[in-house]
Design a protein that fits this description.
It is a single chain. By secondary structure, the chain is mainly alpha-helical. It is built from 9 helices and 3 strands; from the N terminus they run H-E-H-H-E-E-H-H-H-H-H-H. The protein folds into 2 domains: 63 residues, Arc Repressor Mutant, subunit A (Orthogonal Bundle); 137 residues, Up-down Bundle (Four Helix Bundle (Hemerythrin (Met), subunit A)). Strand 2 and strand 3 form a beta hairpin. It starts with 13 loop residues before the first helix and ends in a 6-residue tail after the last helix.
């Protein structure tokens, strides 16, 4: 019997599910940069057909997570530091817009949720829980995108964030980095809570400018 989604009445798309599972495996670091992605292995791991595996690789190549080379197949894309800086420059413009809109559009409940995440980030820094901080950081930015209520901007940022996930984790591991990052995020949340759209945009841009400076200081072979 076919399985149907109860909320929508629609039949699940098996290919979309394969894309989602493969994407998450790459983002979770289960595949290393430049590691080959063999279709037969992917089919076994994700219980996918050859067609679904091929479509998934093409979609992830479009998202910048996979590299497809003629006669060599697919591999996990390795983003250089210089490329990461370029992506962060684009992120700065889009994230700044989201912060600006969030300061105007966020509901009281959303602002409270932002403040709760910021408080949890403070606790993570105090206990030096780097992985926890990294996860909360992602949650905070995701909620700001939700508050901004701009689906196009959110979609583009999700794609850019996926490309940078390894670099972001490496940044979080740099000595003193999460303490600096925390103060920047507290300023962003405070500006949004104060409904100061200009300050929110400026705080977000300053945060990502600092990310670029830190990226520039990393060894070229770090990721």
């Amino acid at each position: 019997m076919d399985r149907w989604e109860p909320a929508t009445g629609k039949k699940p798309d098996p290919t979309a599910e394969v894309v989602a599972h493969m994407r998450q495996a790459i983002l979770d670091g289960e595949y290393s940069p430049r590691e080959r992605l063999v279709e037969a292995d992917l089919c076994r791991r994700f219980s996918a057909s050859r067609f679904s595996a091929r479509v998934a690789l093409q979609q992830l190549a479009f998202e910048g997570l996979v590299e497809l080379q003629r006669n060599r197949g697919a591999s996990v894309r390795a983003l250089s530091i210089d490329e990461a800086i370029e992506v962060t420059q684009v992120r700065a413009a889009l994230e700044g817009l989201c912060a600006q809109r969030a300061a105007t559009l966020a509901t009281p409940e959303q602002i409270e949720a932002l403040q709760e995440i910021a408080e949890a980030m403070q606790q993570a820094v105090q206990s030096q829980e780097t992985l926890r901080y990294h996860e909360l950081n992602a949650r905070l930015h995701a909620l700001i995108r939700t508050c901004a209520d701009n689906p196009t901007c959110s979609r583009l940022l999700e794609q850019l964030r996926a490309q940078l996930v390894r670099h972001q984790f490496v940044l979080a591991l740099q000595p003193g980095r999460i303490e600096v990052s925390l103060q920047q995020h507290l300023r962003i949340v405070a500006a949004i809570a104060a409904r100061d759209s200009s300050a929110a945009e400026e705080a977000m841009r300053q945060h990502l400018d600092n990310v670029m400076v830190t990226l520039q200081s990393l060894p070229k072979t770090v990721v």
